[in-house]
Amino acid sequence: MMPPGLVSNLQEVLLSRKGESNSNANAEQEQSTETLEPVEFDESKPIVLVTNSDGVDSPGLTHLVQALVQQGLYNVHVCVPQSDKSASGHSVTLRETVEAASAKVSGATAFEISGTPVDCVSLALSGALFSWSKPTLVVSGINRGSNCGHHMLYSGVVAGAREALLWGVPALSISLNWKKDESQEDDFKDAVSVCLPLVNAAIKDVEKGTFPKSCFLNIEIPTSPLSNKGFKVTKQSMRKSTLNWLAVSSSRYPPGHFMANQGGLGLQFAQLGRDASAAGAARRLATQKKNLEIIESTGAAGKSDPNRVKKYFRLEFLDKEQEEGDEDLDYRALENGYVAVIPQFLSPLIESDIQMACSDWVSTVLPDGQ
């Protein structure tokens, strides 16, 4: 139990700072709105919706949108999560209000969503956010890291394209096989130059009605994009990673981590340590968007029993050694330097037909790519 005086003082500081923080946030939002230039909408041009799983500042998204805008062929719209939602899978936000905030992306109409990649796509296609509800194509990416095998089930960027397919909209998800200490930020620009012809061909053939139906295409770009050996339509492998849960020392989360619901305070400070002062708490609150999450306390939830056992864990993916497999599997093609194109479908009953249709389409639009 903390002294009542300290709780009272802390409460006053937090409430006053919360008001200042809200005022500053409103001012920033107004200033941001003033600097956003309206993007002209040309009804004669196809609509392309770009999304991803890691936000508006992702270099993969930046270079992709820039390339699409520079061509001057499309109405480019962007709808992405406000924060990194990698490995969020096909999750959606329920029983919570989702915020859509305008974002500045040169040449495109853009929004950041306080939700998952699937939220972004479904909201964009619903007709509630944009004036249209069905773009010509949805492009999800470019992701930092490959998504082969079972990784597609965890991937937020792949889920964005899958959600588009559920809405009946053709889609591509694109990932770069990023490798630590080897890859560079410029590789995303090279990745765009590699996949852009396929994106353009997809848009053109969607309009013509010749793009493969009942599927979306997951495109995996090798680590050195410009050194790729061509495009190769592959099957999804069974490649998977081990989910490794690491126990985290409770010393990282001291008793002061949770503040009981005293005096109506009812707050939990996710990064407030045992020795934090009122001034320190206020400074953290001023930067809560990036550094602090404020939710109801365990006391407010009626679970303040000090005898409860609490443990802390962190999850990491550990890649397993893969046996030599079929050269037509996604990860094998990617490791051998090919741009792997993996058709993804909702029904396994049409797998062989879709595989053949996609192979025929890629070989037609990119005759030198196979």
UniProtKB/TrEMBL annotation:
Keywords: Hydrolase, Metal-binding. It comes from the Eukaryota. The keyword Metal-binding applies. InterPro entries: SurE (IPR030048), SurE-like_Pase/nucleotidase (IPR002828), SurE-like_sf (IPR036523). Residues 48-241 form the Survival protein SurE-like phosphatase/nucleotidase domain. One of its GO terms (molecular function) is metal ion binding. Residues 21-35 have a biased composition (Polar residues). Residues 19-38 are annotated as: Disordered. Pfam families: SurE. The keyword Metal-binding applies. Belongs to the SurE nucleotidase family. This is Survival protein SurE-like phosphatase/nucleotidase domain-containing protein. It comes from Vigna angularis var. angularis. The lineage of its organism: Eukaryota, Viridiplantae, Streptophyta, Embryophyta, Tracheophyta. The gene is Vigan.07G034500.
